Amino acid sequence: MSTRSRARKRSRVRSRTRRKDPIFVDGHRPRPMYVDYKDLELLSKMVNRQGRIMGRRKSGCTAASQHAVTAAIKRARFMALLPYVGE
């Protein structure tokens, strides 16, 4: 078989769409970066069904906001506002 007769597999180029950081307020980063541990609506979006903290790629957070979210989730777990283990 010649190389021309073979069908070439073309890799699909994905266009990355920027996810909006859920911590940002009106498109701007709050300074200082602080996530309230009592905001259970936001924190429950950052935790999956098993109770694990979602990674940056999945949640769309920047590094600074991911650190703040992680600290807030751990604080809320300690205060018994969020469960350590999910369903």
Keywords:
87 residues; 3 helices; 0% strand; 30s Ribosomal Protein S18; elongated; single chain; mainly alpha
Spans of at least 5 consecutive residues whose pLDDT stays below 50 are none
- Give the fraction of residues assigned to helices: 25-40%
CATH architecture: Irregular
> Largest sheet, described in full?
none
Shape: elongated
Order of helices and strands: HHH
Radius of gyration: 20 Å
Proportion of residues in β-strands: under 5%
GO molecular function: small ribosomal subunit rRNA binding; structural constituent of ribosome
Pfam family, one: Ribosomal_S18
Region (Disordered): 1-25
Biased composition (Basic residues): 1-19
SSE layout and pairings?
Layout: H1 40-45, H2 56-59, H3 63-78
Keywords: Ribonucleoprotein, Ribosomal protein, RNA-binding, rRNA-binding
Subunit structure: Part of the 30S ribosomal subunit. Forms a tight heterodimer with protein bS6.
Protein name: Small ribosomal subunit protein bS18
